[in-house]
Specification:
By secondary structure, the chain is α+β, with helices and mostly antiparallel strands. The protein has 3 domains: about 130 residues, no CATH class; about 100 residues, no CATH class; about 110 residues, no CATH class. The protein contains 14 helices and 8 strands.
Length: about 375
């Protein structure tokens, strides 16, 4: 959720009044913050607001105006976007609560700022009445948009940028950049669009199922499962391991470094389960924290080999490409920070970002690369 407000006054006083006059469920939250961001804390919930740096707002608004215009927005909405003076992104951890505290906080802020409110499905006014729909990212149904052929080559990304990219890819890039800016993640305007649906070769449901099984087993081994039980599971699940995975499983005493590398594959497993509909967006979470390993392992083990192969439907090509585009741009921000000797921005976990980018590039058939050969170009 992102707020676009024409108000120019400091946010701190508005937030303090919001807490002082708290009328939401439960006790008022603890508040701390300033120009760099505000956090509202309960014992089990955190709601963070990240104002976009003032110098980045004009460029962001230019992108966003172009995006809403491409969707047929009325001139009055374009003018309201142009009138924006502050852009405030929102992160709710671990997610919306059943008591409605996060919702009450966001509604209270909307009443105070009288903003445009941007949600994943569209633009709303301060009363959360719809003004413009983006369209469902997954519209088109599970399984559409890909050939389902393993190893099919994807068209290279258009390094020339918007001049050669399709309208679909340009809109996807604009959505991603708007979200990342709202989260305080640096973006690179020149970073090209990724593939459109007619260029990508999204992996089939069956391929994703088999990849998830392989990732589960090698991650278990990386975490410490002994080789005997692991090989029994490989046989029980009929796992189709990649050459590198098979070599790892064949080792009786892999190095600690190798174990750690394969334990990170839980992140790729989370992406596969998300792509099959076993995990929601909220359950997968953003790349600031690791996936809930006990939960995903339990889910697969309870289903068992036959049950897991029978369950789940692949998300649409559009939904998978949306996630791949975000991962691509998150990874650029992390790599850029590393190159310049800075910490990863906006609380991003570099390991999680890399593993998700890797898994999503495989899912969209990037450059036709097999699992062991996937690159995460930025």
């Amino acid at each position: 959720m992102t707020f676009y407000t024409a108000r120019e006054d400091a946010l701190t006083s508005r937030f303090e009044r919001l807490v002082a006059g708290w009328t939401g469920p439960g006790p008022a939250p603890r508040h701390r913050g300033g120009p760099e961001g505000h956090v509202f804390l309960w014992d089990d919930l955190a709601v963070r607001f990240h104002p976009m740096p003032a110098e980045e707002v004009p460029g962001h608004l230019a992108d966003f105006v172009a995006f809403v215009r491409s969707l047929g927005a009325e001139a009055s909405l374009e003018e309201r976007v142009r009138a924006t003076r502050q852009v405030v992104g929102t992160v709710i951890e671990p997610g919306l609560d059943a008591e409605g505290r996060a919702e009450a906080l966001c509604v209270g802020l909307a009443e105070a700022l009288e903003p445009l409110v941007v949600l994943p499905d569209g633009v709303y006014d301060a009363a959360f009445e719809p003004l413009l729909a983006f369209g469902a990212p997954g519209d088109g149904g599970s399984g559409e948009g890909g050939s389902g052929e393993g190893g099919a080559e994807a068209a290279p990304r258009e390094v020339e940028g918007a001049e050669t990219a399709s309208p679909e890819a340009i809109e996807r890039k604009a959505r991603s950049m708007a979200r990342l800016r709202a989260e305080g993640v640096p973006v690179l305007e020149a970073l090209p669009c990724i593939e459109a649906k007619d260029q990508a070769r999204i992996r089939s449901r069956e391929e994703i199922v088999e990849r998830a099984i392989a990732l589960l087993l090698v991650a278990l081994r990386g975490e410490g499962l002994e080789v005997g039980p692991l090989r029994g599971l490989v046989e029980e699940w009929g796992a189709e391991l990649s050459p590198a995975e098979a070599a790892f499983v064949a080792e009786d005493a892999p190095s600690d470094r190798t174990r750690v590398q394969f334990a990170w594959r839980y992140e790729g497993l989370g992406v596969m389960l998300w792509a099959l509909g076993h995990l929601s967006d909220e359950e997968l979470g953003d790349p600031r924290s690791i996936v809930d390993v006990p939960a995903i392992v339990k889910r697969m083990m309870e289903l068992g080999p036959a049950g897991f192969r029978a369950a789940g439907e692949r998300r649409s090509a559009a939904s998978i490409l949306d996630a791949a585009d975000l991962a691509y741009r998150y990874d650029w921000a992390v790599v850029d920070a590393r190159v310049h000797g800075r910490r990863a921005p906006a609380g991003l976990d570099p390991g999680v970002v890399y593993e998700r980018h890797y898994a999503l590039n495989w899912l969209i058939g990037y450059q036709g690369q097999a699992w062991d050969e996937v690159t995460t170009d930025t």
